[in-house]
Amino acid sequence: MCRYIRLLRVEEATATEDEVRAAALQFVRKIAGLRRKSEMTAAPVLDAVDEIAVASRRLLAALEPVAVVTR
């Protein structure tokens, strides 16, 4: 059900709208315990995804990017 939500605050590139929304969707699915996509059509869930995406974009804009260390 829950995939890894990747780091969006990196020096190399700015997170796209699709990446922010995908992370918000994963977060909502995790905290709501949703597993099937058919459940994602519920208006309250989609509203939550929108709100979290907005808050995430605001947070990313307020923070400095970080360097990602690869091994």
Give the tags.
0% strand; 71 residues; mainly alpha; 2 helices
Question: Can you walk me through this structure?
Answer:
The chain is an all-alpha fold. The protein has a domain of 46 residues. Helices cover 51% and strands 0% of the residues. It is built from 2 helices and no strands. Helix 1 crosses helix 2. It is elongated, with a radius of gyration of 13 Å.
**What proportion strand?**
under 5%
What structural class do the secondary elements suggest?
mainly alpha
Major sheet characteristics: none
Q: Provide the succession of SSEs.
A: HH
Distance between the termini: 27 Å
Relative helix content: 40-55%
Count, helices: 2
Principal-axes shape call: elongated
What number is the mean pLDDT? Answer: 82
Report Rg. Answer: 13 Å
Stretches with pLDDT under 50, minimum 5 residues: none
How many β-strand stretches?
Answer: 0
Would you spell out the secondary-structure blueprint of this structure?
Blueprint: H1 17-32, H2 43-62
Summarize the structure.
The protein has 71 residues and is an all-alpha fold.
